[in-house]
Amino acid sequence: MTRVIITGAGSYIGTHLDAGLRRRTERFEAEEMDLHGAWDASAFLGCGCVIHVAGLAHRKEQPGDEALYDRVNCELALKVARAAKAQGVKQFVFFSSMSVYGLTCGRITEHTQPAPNTHYGVSKWKAEQALAELEDDAFHVAVLRPPMIYGRGCRGNYPRLSALAQSLPLFPRVQNERSMLYIDTLCAFVERLVESGAGGLYFPQNREYVSTCAMVREIAACHGRRVRLVPGLNALLGVMAPRVGPVGKVFGTLTYDQNMSEAFRPEEEPSFAQTIRMTEVGT
Question: How far apart are CA 280 and CA 151, in angstroms?
Fold first, then answer.
């Protein structure tokens, strides 16, 4: 049995990971750890894996926020990793982000290099590089760069899009593709990763790319509504997406090559339509 500590008590991802691992009582002993205020590094003694979820995200960035993001997303992660290593922890799982690429639109392959352009993305990339220096044969660092994570009660951009889908009668028919990651699929991936004890760089995502208009249609259907998809704007929005940030986040294409996501991928996962229904209505 592997004892697992998940930093970031009460966070959306951390709470779901904790619940998922606790269900596997024959394999894992899981607990959440709060890093607000003082925390005791001796808690890592006898722990096989630390999953570092704690961080600063889903916040409108201000010009003077760079030091804050560095302190929370980079320096704290490094401090926790050093403490875990000193206590004999074998695996450290760090949640980074697709944001390290600095892209609103694009298709990311194994050859795409990080080029973050936000405080959040820069702080995550700095943390990745610092953590890599701690890795050795006895301390494995696994870095995850997930795309948008969604599920019931999630935060970030998904709830905003859901609100639009439940209120707008019309929506542009746009042919775009987005990599996304359902929370239960993420949990299944992490279980397999922790069981392996491996380090490395990982890109968990759903098997299906998603178009924004298909997502809006599915969300509306869950609430008994029908959204009419209006043709004729695909070319205009396609030109605007790389140039106008908010347009790109909604209508642009941003994907990982699916070949990058094969490691520890769950053998089965729900369809996209099923994940939207479980997110919206819970069944």
Answer: 8
